[in-house]
Specification:
It contains 14 helices and 16 strands. Helix 2 (93-106) runs parallel beside helix 3 (129-135), helix 4 packs across helix 7 and helix 7 (199-215) runs parallel beside helix 8 (227-238). It has 419 residues and is of the alpha/beta class. It has helices spanning 65-75, 93-106, 129-135, 150-162, 174-177, 186-191, 199-215, 227-238, 249-253, 275-287, 302-305, 322-332, 337-344, 346-352; strands spanning 15-19, 22-27, 42-45, 47-52, 77-82, 110-113, 140-141, 167-169, 182-183, 195-196, 219-221, 243-247, 292-293, 367-376, 397-406, 409-413. The protein binds (4S)-2,6-dioxohexahydropyrimidine-4-carboxylic acid (DOR).
Length: 419
């Protein structure tokens, strides 16, 4: 058992007894009417992903709540937070309620919606945050559309503080980014694609941190991708500001070299960066500057991806490959197993102030069983997501969730252990 947030020893060989959808006992030699033998595997709290695009309502040809939550269960996640850039945008109670209701009907994993900061993501008029909060949002964000207007960001922070919600920023100064499709640097120059500079991200984070200091509101930086952003957040945390952040598996695993062949599956926002950035991200994850690992699972169809690099929509899938990619860093010895699991469980729960992330007695039984060495290859035939836009498609990876238990119910059972 690996439970970094627990009071008991983090690393323990023990039985977990589940009854009535809750964890009721942890210890040796427990008895129960039905036993699932997972000896020698890792039993961890159900994984939590703070950054997922489910595309429902409105773009169900890419993904929907059923396929997206299925992909989450296969990936070992029991809670996912979904971004508001749906159609219509999740900027009002009715849309939040629809997402919550659909997710409950499907019943695969828990979906916690993130509401928009501005109406229709227009960057001008604040959305109906109070009523979305009542309907169940856990944060606000205009993800994919950074909020450029500083005055509006200030008001949004003040509003978010009133409702004790974190404001999640997709940090990209659009004037600095100038519509660049990848990282600005040697690779972009070589292949003739317009890039956007790393400072497009860090400049917005620097601005936001000034406003956080002024307002005292909670700030969460989505998909941190540059060394400079990591340094700014490290400093802000040292100063005691209420700041958290996340990194994606793809920004840890890939650099802009991956774009060399114009493969649109490598086009993401923020873009894949340099080796120096990659190293700083890993260092930030190891020392806790970066709180959480989040996938930014962004399904797209061939309509958006089978086009020229500069015309392609940014985004790649993440839910089904996050674990093996992260476990690769553990295998290489550059990331501790406990830190890796903490960044996928307790730390994201704390960042958004949501329950879960620990195998505590009395807690809802969200449990994931991981085989850290289990080979896995994402293929179009076996993928659970509706989309295919992953640069890891066809690659031999290792480490995966073999069992995912959500509220005491098995929602993913790779080896049919229950039969
Ligand atoms: O790569 C991305 N895709 N970055 C974003 O911020 C938005 C996302 C999407 O919605 O596809």
């Amino acid at each position: 058992m690996l439970d970094p947030a627990a009071q008991r020893p983090v690393d323990l060989a023990a039985d977990v007894r589940i009854q009535g959808g809750r964890i009721v006992e942890i210890g040796r030699g427990l008895v129960a009417p039905r036993i699932i033998d997972v000896k020698d595997l890792w039993v961890v709290p159900g994984l939590i992903d703070l950054h997922v695009h489910l595309r429902e309502p409105g773009q169900e040809y890419k993904e929907d709540i059923e396929t997206g939550t299925r992909a989450a269960a296969v990936g070992g996640f029991t809670t996912i937070c979904c971004m508001p850039n749906t159609r219509p945008v999740n900027d009002q109670r009715a849309v939040t309620e629809l997402i919550v209701r659909r997710a409950k009907e499907v019943g695969c994993v828990r979906v916690r919606p993130i509401g928009a900061i501005t109406h229709n993501l227009d960057g001008k008029h604040l959305a109906d945050i109070a009523e979305m909060k009542e309907a169940g949002i856990v944060a606000i964000s205009d993800d994919g559309r950074p909020v450029m207007n500083s005055g509006l960001v200030r008001r949004a922070f003040e509003y978010a503080r009133t409702f004790d919600l974190p404001l999640v920023q997709h940090a990209e100064d659009l004037d600095l980014a100038e519509g660049g499709s990848m990282n600005e640097g040697a690779v972009a120059t070589r292949i003739g694609i317009k890039g956007q500079p790393a400072c497009a991200e860090s400049a917005m984070v620097a601005r936001d941190l000034e406003i956080v200091e002024w307002t005292g509101a909670r700030y969460h930086v989505a998909h941190v991708s540059t060394a400079r952003t990591v340094a700014l957040i490290r400093d802000a945390k040292r100063r005691g500001l209420p700041v958290t952040c996340e990194v994606t598996p793809h920004h840890l695993a890939l650099t802009d070299e991956a774009c060399s062949h114009y493969d649109t599956r490598t086009k993401v926002m923020p873009p894949l960066r340099t080796t120096a950035d990659q190293e700083a991200l890993l260092e930030g994850l190891v020392d806790g500057t970066i709180d959480a690992i989040a996938t930014d699972h962004a399904p797209h169809s061939p309509v958006e991806k089978d086009v020229e690099f500069e015309c392609a929509a940014p985004g790649m899938l993440g839910l089904e490959t996050a674990l093996p990619i992260i476990l690769d860093f553990v295998r290489m010895g550059s990331l501790d197993d406990k830190r890796a699991i903490a960044a996928l469980t307790g730390a994201p729960a704390r960042a958004f102030g949501i329950p879960g992330g620990s195998l505590a007695i009395g807690a809802v039984a969200d449990v994931t069983v991981i085989d850290p060495e289990r080979p896995m290859t994402l293929t179009p035939e076996t993928i659970a997501s509706k989309s295919r836009n992953s640069p890891f498609m066809g690659q031999k990876l290792a480490g995966r969730a073999v069992l995912t238990i959500f509220e005491g119910k098995v929602v993913h059972d790779l080896d049919s252990r229950l039969r």
